[in-house]
Amino acid sequence: MKNIAIASSDSALDQAIMFLLQDNYHIFNIQLNDQLANSLQNKSIDLLIVDLKSINPESMGLIQIIKRLQPNLPVVMLYDLKMPEKFVVDFFQMADLMLRKPFSNQQLINAVSTFLNGSQRLGNV
Questions:
Q1: CA 111 to CA 103: how far, in whole Å?
Q2: In terms of Cα–Cα distance, which of 86, 81, 42, 87 is closest to 63?
Q3: Which phi and psi angles does 77 have, rounded to 5°?
Q4: Taking a C-beta distance cutoff of 8 angstroms, is the pair 125, 101 a contact?
């Protein structure tokens, strides 16, 4: 079963994503902090979902490190219109998909399925 890591500070969003995807994927939360290496020690990640509300300069650096270690790791970033302006270019460079909230359940299911079943890159939705 493929592993999806969620980095978010919104527990309601986390639970909704877990409920939506739990039948087909193993889903777990990670914290984008200095304990990240410990939380990933015995886990592999096949897809990373990041809620941009949980991002700060330090956590952006951690995502960049993860991407360097796993260059083929798909990253789906969830954002709303309150996206921090100073990071916009970095977000679009790190993300394989920027998914604007609110999004439909089907949009997320399609994106996850596309990445984890070997289909092409999606771009921005």
A1: 11
A2: 87
A3: -105, 130
A4: no
CA atoms within 13 A on the CB side of 54: 21
* Residue 102, both tokens: 């609110």
Measured between alpha carbons, how far is residue 48 from residues 16, 70, 85, 86 in Å? 16, 11, 22, 22
d(CA 125, CA 97): 7
**Measured between alpha carbons, how far is 76 from 97 in angstroms, rounded to an integer?**
5
**Six token digits for residue 110:** 């399609």
The amino acid occupying position 31 is Q
Q: Helix, strand, or coil here: 28?
A: strand
Long-range contacts of 35-41 (CB under 8 A, 24+ apart): 36/62, 36/66, 40/5
- Cα distance from N-terminal residue to C-terminal residue, the chain: 26
pLDDT tier for residue 68 given thresholds of 50, 70 and 90: confident
Average the pLDDT over each of 1-10, 41-50, 71-80, 98-107 and give the range with the smallest value.
41-50
pTM of the shown model: 0.84
